[in-house]
Amino acid sequence: MSSVVLLVVLPFAGAMIALVGKLVRAEPVLSVISTVPLLGMGALLVMQFPAVLDGAAFTYSLGGWPEPAGIALTLDGFGWLSSVLVVLISTMVVFASFSSRRYRSTYFFVLMLLVAGMQVVVLTEDIFTMFVGFEIVAISAYVLIAFDRTDEGLLASLKYLLLSSMGILFFLFGVFLLYRDFGTLSLRIMAEDSATTPMAEMTSVHLAVAALCVGIGVRTAFMPFHTWLPEAHAYAPHPVSALLSGVLIKISFFAMLRIIAVFRATYLSDLLLWIGAATAFLAVVWALAQRDAKRLLAYHSISQMGYVLAAFGATSALSLTAAFSHAMHHALFKSLLFLVAGAAVQMSGARDLYLIRPIGRRAPLLAFGFVVGALSIAGVPPFNGFASKQLITSALDHHPAYALLWITAVGTTASFIKVSRIVLPRRPAGPALQITKLMTGLRSAHRVPVSEPASAGVMIHIPVVVLGLLCLATGVFARPVSLLLASLLSPTGLGAFTTTSAAGDPAIPATFLSGAKLLGALPVLLLGVLLYAGTTTVPGTRLARRIERIMPELRTILLFFVFGLALFAAAAYR
Amino acid sequence: MRKTDILDVVSRKLAPFMFLFGLYLVSHGDLSPGGGFQGGVVIASGVILLAMAKGSAAAAALLPVRKLAVTEAVAFGLILAVGLAGVLMGAGFLADVLYDGTLLPIVRTPFVFILNLLIGLKVGAGASLICLHLFAQE
Amino acid sequence: MAWYLIGAIFLAGVWGLIALPNLIKKVVALNIANSAIILFFIYFGSLSGDTAPIMGDGAGTPVDPLPQALMLTAIVVGVCVVALALGLVYRLYTRYGTLDIREIERKVWKRDE
């Protein structure tokens, strides 16, 4: 099936068109044309849908070489889902990018390379090709983060570069160990080989898996590798933030899932569960303390990925479906939130929550989209965040770590009441603003150049409306959507990793919107309101300022990395 | 730091040979160690040598930045096209479309030769561009 | 013996990346660690044979060509990352007049100390 290879080659062709556009001085036209391959990829994915749903897996060997020597691409249910996520969010981001004239062919060249890299990562069967895909993704991401050439953007990009290059060194080291032990790079063959080898005889494989997980962990940004994300996602251009938070961190998470499944590294699941819960909780504390709108959202990305990781680490019948559905839903609502927050920042020329002029009256549609996104992330029924949090609750099944996630939900609600400031009509800011002004003197780091256009453009309404509707639809039709996810995931190698129930049915709740569940969401919301009220008091604000100012230096960040590495190695050899 | 004439003369005499050696590596990649990438880098290192000895303006006069950029983009496109040619002929991406099943007396594979040539162009132009841009910022 | 040597190079690179405050030195350290990984592959590949892996040459066992091909790719990727990193460092240097990451961070975030 040549359609699999087209899914990878088409974005490269788009990048080439943008590159040519830069040289022949037909920039606007060719920039638009360069994104057309996304539509082609979407069409290919739709065409493959019935076959993939039947459990078919299309494998394609590059150059017609069979697998031990050649590089194989595989499109199965897992690859299809990840690919759909990439194509959907990228298309939305492209629409948002059209709304600003700053983004010319260079931007679209790098953007399409990023898409191509992500497609390589999700579709490849060869672990070295996965490394190359990760590096294509990373290099394009570095360029895009620094694209506006602001000071913060440059520094964030460099930090991300140093940290993730260090991570990828360990990834490559893991690849080396695997090649030494298995004599092949194909994940499929490695899975077959390691299935017949007893665990005790694979000592160096454990080290390799730990190294691979650490390398990927930097990209997925769970603790203690998360430190680059708030800056990188906050100071990137607005559409890029949506893409980075929406897709990029999921792609690496999916890759980690695959690697853990291939080597049956179940011993990591407890570690992942606790890391996930701790990540979710700590990140939301920091999120609550932020004043910068985009930084706040970036911390929420870390926090929500913590949920995903915890759900996966629970290794119950539902955990794979729960992790996937929350990752998908997070992609939808977080891109939506970032796009609207970006538009709000652009319209008022300020990043600070207390300085942004509310967009409610000037752009009601965007404001409405933002409210949908905020309700989704806060887990308010009937939006999709509520549905996937239901799944996570069932997946964790009263595990002690669930308490942390429950508190996180309260914090999420509180912080989104705080962010609602950017859409609702202006209110007196109360003590929060006064103290903010006193303590920080309104640092100029929170302002953006005034030369920005005051309007957010027309095109940005398309992605906001589409994503908002999707958030609602996946929430209302939660049961069919999660059944679809479960049936796409179960025939793949991943399904074997989680223990499914005897009937093979992954025990998806019959209804997501029963009265008891709605009541269960109520205390979270009430406590969230209380917590928000708490943060607006004088001591609350002071504490928040203090937390906000904790920003680790680069050296500390790199030491975090070594700590995380030791953690994973210890788990592997326990 | 003062620059001596030795660097100037040696690099001027050496650079053409580096280009030649790069071309040799590119064109014999299917027969001997070497290939498009290695040859391209050798060519680029010739450009870098010129740029370091004579200044990036001199190197840019020999190989204008714009032409290098065009070469790179075109080579990129052609590589994709050659790869897709295999798909169109039903043989798969990057499959050898020129191989007809007969072994030639000397073991040359025209398809690999063409790929090497394109990769050599792409890498040579790309690596030279990176360095010329870095030098130009000084 | 050679394995330990390569491991030492790798650790030296990682140490430099963590401990040195100078950004250029950090980038160089990154490159050193990257080279150590490349050496791992190449040395492992070189143990598998003694002649170039070209058909029709005859004598000797050919080496495993895969590690060489992989490392060529890894080198390219490494060069791209280093070029980009140097570009970023250069931009930061022109704005802040220093290569010390601690000082740059202080200036960007306007920490008063």
Please tell me what the overall shape of chain C is. Answer: elongated
What fraction strand of chain C? Answer: under 5%
> What is the domain tally of chain C?
1
Low-confidence stretches of chain A: 440-453, 499-504
Low-confidence stretches of chain C: none
Q: Kindly give the count of domains of chain A.
A: 1
Shape of chain A: globular
Mean pLDDT of chain C: 84
Largest sheet of chain A: 2 strands, antiparallel
- Total strand segments of chain C: 0
Q: In CATH's first tier, which class of chain C applies? A: Mainly Alpha
Number of helices of chain A: 23
- Could you estimate the helical fraction of the residues of chain A in percent? over 70%
Assess the beta-strand content of chain A as a share of residues.
Answer: under 5%
Q: Which pair of chains has the greatest number of interface residues, and how are they split between the two chains?
A: A-C, 38 and 38 residues
Q: What helical percentage do the residues of chain C reach? A: over 70%
What's the arrangement of strands in the largest beta sheet of chain A? 1-2
Number of helices of chain C: 4
Mind explaining what this structure looks like?
The complex is a heterotrimer of chains A (574), B (138) and C (113). In chain A, strands 1-2 form a two-stranded antiparallel ribbon. Chain A contains 23 helices and two strands. Chain A has helices at 2-23, 27-34, 36-53, 77-98, 105-123, 127-145, 151-182, 187-196, 203-220, 229-235, 238-262, 269-289, 293-313, 319-348, 364-377, 384-396, 402-419, 431-440, 461-476, 478-489, 515-536, 538-548, 554-573; strands spanning 58-61, 72-75. Chain A is globular. Chain A has one domain (2-573). The longest helix of chain A is centred in the first third of the chain and has 32 residues, at 151-182. Chain A has 574 residues and is mainly α. The longest helix of chain B has 27 residues, at 110-136. Chain B is elongated, with a radius of gyration of 18 Å. With 138 residues, chain B is mainly α. Chain B is built from five helices and no strands. In chain B, helix 1 runs antiparallel to helix 2, helix 2 runs parallel beside helix 5 (110-136) and helix 4 runs antiparallel to helix 5 (110-136). The mean pLDDT of chain B is 81. Chain B has one domain. Chain C has 113 residues and is mainly α. Chain C has a single domain (2-52, 61-109), classed as Orthogonal Bundle (Helix Hairpins), CATH 1.10.287.3510. Chain C has four helices and no strands. In chain C, helix 1 (2-19) packs antiparallel against helix 2 (23-46) and helix 2 (23-46) runs antiparallel to helix 3 (65-96). The longest helix of chain C is centred in the C-terminal third of the chain and has 32 residues, at 65-96. The model of chain C has no long low-confidence stretch (mean pLDDT 84).
